[in-house]
Each structure stands twice: as structure tokens, then as C-alpha cells.
Amino acid sequence: MSTAYTIVTIVGAAMVGFSAVSVFLHAKWVVEPLAEYGVPRSWWPWLGTAKAAGAIGLVVGLFVPVIGVAAAVGLVLYFTGAVVTVLRARSYAHVPFPLMYAAPVVASLVLWI
Fold first, then answer.
1. What does the DSSP assignment read for 64-109?
2. Whole-angstrom distance, CA of residue 100 vs CA of residue 113
3. CB burial of residue 60 (10 Å; 0-12, 13-18, 19+)
4. Which pLDDT does position 9 carry in this prediction?
5. Which of 25, 24, 29, 84 is nearest to 51 (CA)?
6. pLDDT tens, 54-112?
7. Residues ≥6 apart with Cβ < 8 Å to 23
8. What are the sequence ranges of the domains in the chain?
9. How many whole angstroms separate alpha carbon 74 and alpha carbon 81?
10. Rounded to an integer, what distance in angstroms lies between the CA atom of residue 93 and that of residue 79?
11. Cα(19)–Cα(35) distance, rounded to whole angstroms?
């Protein structure tokens, strides 16, 4: 396992974990856009749980690679859905935010190969 893979994976997990905690704590800068995009409030805990599970999966993947790959693929799909949601809401200025969280996850997948 390379040092770059380990660092990128830990950074990605930390970023996604931070995002999950922000949803759970209803941080204003996270939940206001979700409401603007039309994401039902009842989905928010599930979205936070999906991010938290993905972050944990990335870390576990350092020891059990198949779990890390599954978590990374799941997170890439999650953030792809987030980009689509932002685009559908026509909040084009917000597109970089889910991409910012997806970038280290994609990088960890690339480095894993």
C-alpha cells in the first residue's frame, strides 16, 4: 500500500465524515442548500448516514481493500447524485461543492489501481 493512497484515503474519509457530521448537526451552510434544492427533510438523516458509512468504509478499506473499493464506488455514486440534484435545482454555483468532496474519493480509487 502506497503512502499516497493512504494519505488521500484518510483525507477523503475525513472530508466525507465532516460532511456527514454537518448534516447530522444541521449545519446551516449544509441544510439550507438542501432545502433550496428540494431535498425532503426526511431524507437528511439517510444522506448523513450514507456519507458516514462511506467514510468509515474508506478507512476500513485500508485494511480490507474490497470494502474500501465498495465504499469509494458508493460515495462516487452519492456525489454524482448530489451534482445532478444541484444541476436540477439550477444552482450552478454550488456544483463545485460535491465535486470537492468526491475528488479525494476518486483519487483514492485511482491510486488503489
1. SHHHHHHHHHHHHHHHHHHHHHHHHTT-GGGTHHHHHHHHHHHHHH
2. 21
3. middle
4. 96
5. 24
6. 999 999 999 999 999 999 999 999 999 999 999 999 989 999 999 999 999 999 999 98
7. 30, 31, 34, 44, 45, 47, 48, 51
8. 3-112
9. 11
10. 16
11. 16
The residue with cell 463545485 is 96
Residue owning grid cell 481493500:
65
Percent helix, strand and coil across the chain, each to the nearest 5? 85, 0, 15
**What's the CA gap between 84 and 48, in Å, rounded?**
18
Q: What is the pLDDT of residues 14-67, one digit of tens each?
A: 999 999 999 999 999 989 999 999 999 999 999 999 999 999 999 999 999 999
Q: Are 34 and 21 in contact (CB under 8 A)?
A: no
